Amino acid sequence: MNKQIITASVCLLAALSVAGITGKNFMEVKKPDELRPGPGVTQTKMLSDYFPDIAGTNADSTVYVMEGEQPGGKMLVLGGTHANEPSGYLAAITFVESGKVEQGTVFVIPRTCNSGFTHNDPQEGSPQYYTIQTKGGPRQFRYGSRAANPLDQWPDPDVYVHAASGQRLSGSETRNINRTYPGRPDGTLTEKASYAVRQLIDTEGVNLTFDLHEASPEYPVINATVAHETAMSIASNGMFELQMAGIAMSLEPSPTNLHGLTHRELGDYTDTLPLLMETANASQGRLRGKTNADLVLTGKDKCYVKAQKLGFLYVPYDETGHPIEERVGRHLQGIYEYSKAYSAQYPESPIVYNGLPSYQELFLDADPSELGGTQLGKYLN
Ligand SMILES: [Zn+2]
Asked: Do 321 and 301 form a contact (C-beta atoms < 8 A)?
């Protein structure tokens, strides 16, 4: 056989195997993580049950319904608004796998921006997965992107105009679900997803909504709760209890001139009381060093320790980092204290649940060698 044909065949074979391997990886990343709902989940629905237009698209997402034996208020927990902020995602999953509602109904959406879990942000070097040892063995969880996948919504405009307010943002924000509320039934896929969340709130009569986030340690709004003015009295009462439990939490009013976010638009366009919480995630920060699954789970980063010493940060930062137990613990304790404050203010529609670890149990009392995933894994199935 001619030498060129042999060389060409070898090259073609090599190219096909690379395409095969990367293609397999690409398809696997699109599969959602398997969740293992606990006995507290009484029904499983889809976002498309509230807005059928998104059925069969990557905007659709599972809604776990947890009904108490006694009637009461309705609460919605939004995890995974940003798929590169693991504490919100894992707090929602912990709720679904370990929580049990006694009074009222809790709706949990672990992947609010489902499409964001199907890809990573380019040039960030983010890990695709991180692994946690759980009761059922090691489990992989996806580390995704802040925005929906361009394969689901493309191209981005140069300027993103928020439909309800006319606010102008950079084009890529058109795929950020937390800039598209209250959503539009005839808008982009991301606008349809936020519209579906709003439809759920209206249809089910959700009283209280939590949106769980993380932010870079150098971002000013961190270890913070942002509250719509209608939720301010609940937030201030709950924050007092959080401070008493040793959790430093600042309370920020939702800016009236910043549009598209849950804490503004869900309060303006629905009857729910919206609260958004932020924890510190080094793996999405701009000053971070080596970026891997370990950083996602432990938050240990020499560069951030140095940045703290130079006064660049808004959270304390030392060699112990900010492990996932601290960050998930803050979210779970926050939901607990704010929902308790809600139940005290609206005694005719209380929301009562149990089974979830407190901040003290999950973080403060934990063996330091178990922080970084192992301790949290005890509450995952
Ligand atoms: Zn976020």
From this structure: yes
Chosen CATH of 40-377 out of 3.20.20.80, 3.30.460.10, 3.40.718.10, 3.40.630.10: 3.40.630.10
Burial 291-324 (b: 16+ CB within 10 A, else e): bebbbbbbbbbeebbebbeeeebbbebeeebbbb
Residue 86 CA, ligand 1 centroid: distance in Å: 10
pLDDT in tens, 122-135: 899 999 999 999 99
CA of 26 to the centre of ligand 1 (A): 24
Tokens 């270890």 map to which residue?
A: 223
Mean pLDDT of the chain: 96
CA of 48 to the centre of ligand 1 (A): 23
What is the rounded distance in angstroms from the CA atom of residue 88 to the CA atom of residue 101? Answer: 20
Q: What's the 85 CA to ligand 1 centre distance in angstroms? A: 6
CA of 17 to the centre of ligand 1 (A): 37
Å from CA of 308 to ligand 1 middle: 22
Condensed to tens digits (0 to 9), the pLDDT of residues 336-358 reads 999 999 999 999 999 999 999 99
Q: What is the pTM of this model?
A: 0.95
Q: Would you say 58 and 152 are in contact if contact means Cβ atoms under 8 Å apart?
A: yes
